[in-house]
Amino acid sequence: MIKLTNLTKIYGKLTAVNHINLDVGSGEIFGFLGPNGAGKTTTIRMIAGLLQPTEGTAVIGEYDIQREAIQAKAITGFIPDRPYIYDKLTATEFMHFTASLYDLTDAKNRIIGLLELFGLVDWMDELVENYSHGMKQRLVMASALLHEPRVLVVDEPMVGLDPRGARLVKDIFKDLASKGVTVFMSTHTLEIVEQMCSRVAIINQGNIIAQGSVQDLGRMARMQDSHLEPIFLRLTGGDEVLDS
Ligand SMILES: Nc1ncnc2c1ncn2[C@@H]1O[C@H](COP(=O)(O)OP(=O)(O)O)[C@@H](O)[C@H]1O
Ligand SMILES: [Mg+2]
Fold first, then answer.
1. Residue-wise pLDDT tens digits, 94-135
2. Which domain holds residue 117?
3. Is residue 41 part of a domain?
4. Which atom of ligand 1 is nearest to the CA of 36?
5. Which residues are paired to 59 by β-bridges?
């Protein structure tokens, strides 16, 4: 589970994330929606322990990400929006390197299994520099699952994936959630949220302006339509917010 309490990040005069409170349970796929610059990545980086909050706390499982960083990170998988992998490694080498960071012994079978799951097994001994963006992204996802995290924090997972890759990732996230993993993901794609998420929060200019199930948000926006797009546009105040 993830519990955010008054989580805040201030950059100079800009409050990028403003006292947000969220509770996400195990087995839940939680969608974190918002226009560009709303504060999604900043929030996710604080949850992953990569950015120190100005105020407030993020608790992962039973661990405070600031005070018990090692324990919190041991149960967290983080998938950034821009995959970064050393170009001169092969997928197999990158996976073994990641396994060593997590002190995993005997990771060989798990590595092969994950490369198979993400459709990379035929390329596993090629240098990453020859991979497409989508392949790099799938490799980063595979590596984030190596230590069997209980909580998965994902920034814009579908960007750069082709339809087959997106479908694969959706199925994998759903499967993980069905096994009790908490999935917290930011996205621009309302369709993804509608297909996958049990609950959603909408962040705008650092503030959570709505949260609940898709139906709850519809009621908040006083709309009959059960689709998220008009609700999102109404709550975030105009369609210019979708420019990206
Ligand atoms: N390191 C930084 N220094 C100053 N401002 C930043 C920094 N990182 C992000 N911001 C600002 O914080 C706001 C939220 O950014 P971000 O969390 O990346 O939004 P999102 O991921 O929702 O698009 C934006 O206005 C952005 O320009
Ligand atoms: Mg972002």
1. 999 999 999 998 899 999 999 999 999 999 999 999 999 889
2. 83-148
3. no
4. 23
5. 3, 64
